[in-house]
Structure formats: C-alpha cells, structure tokens
Design brief:
Largest sheet: 4 strands, mixed
Order of helices and strands: HEEEHEEHEEH
Helix content: 25-40%
Strand order of the largest sheet: 1-5-4-6
Number of strands: 7
Shape: globular
Oligomer: single chain
Amino acid sequence: MNPKFEEIIPVFRKFLEQQGCPGKIVWVAPEHTMCCGRAEWKIFENECVDEEDIKLKYQDADDKKFGVRFCALCVNDETSYCYLIVPTSELDADYKLLTYEKVKLSVPAEMPHASILRRGFRASWYQTRESIKFKEWKELVFRID
C-alpha cells in the first residue's frame, strides 16, 4: 500500500526544500503551462490543478496498485510548480518503473525558471512559438503519450 496522500505531501515538500526549491506547491497540467525552452516555463496566471484532484489521482493509482511520481516542473522565488505522474496500465507502470508501493520524488537536475503570464495576445505568441519549437520537449517533460 502506498502512503496516504496526507503523509506524502509533507515528505515531497521537504524534498523540494532540500533541493533548493520553495516549499509552496502549485499543481499544474500541460494546459496551464508553456514551454519556452529547457530553462524557462510560462505558467498561466490563476490556473492550476486543485490539490483535491491530485489526491483523487493518487488514490486511484493506489486502488489500481500503481506507483506514482511527484515531479517538480519549474520554480519561481516563492513557488514550486509540480505535477503527478500516474501510470495508465500495468505495462505503463513497468515501463515508468512505478510498480506498486513505489512513490518517487523528482526534480530536474537544472531547475527551470517559471514566470507568470496572463492569457491574451502575448500568450498567443508564446503558444505559437511553443507549438513550433518546444511541443516535443513539453510532451517529453510531462510524459504525454
């Protein structure tokens, strides 16, 4: 059995702090972010995944007897922007080395910087640029199949 969600979040927060990242966690999904290269991410202002939804994904993985990976995507001065990887099948769990009772914590070797961006014309320009130059990189980071 994986640890309870309420038990693992403080462990993840402490792990982030040990890696030099802020302890404040904001959960994001690909639609809340724009990749501007390996060292820079844009996060849409006031857009995130509710922690309760992350908890439900975590519990669903536990019910299916899958492991999970808590990942940091990028940081700014006060916030770590994070996401949760949950396998979609037993084969996917094996492929991602997330067998049952495995909770992995992950940060990039070189932590990318995050900046906040409002949706609008400027965001549209970044989205076009992302779709041309960085789409594959974003899919790789978020492990989108």
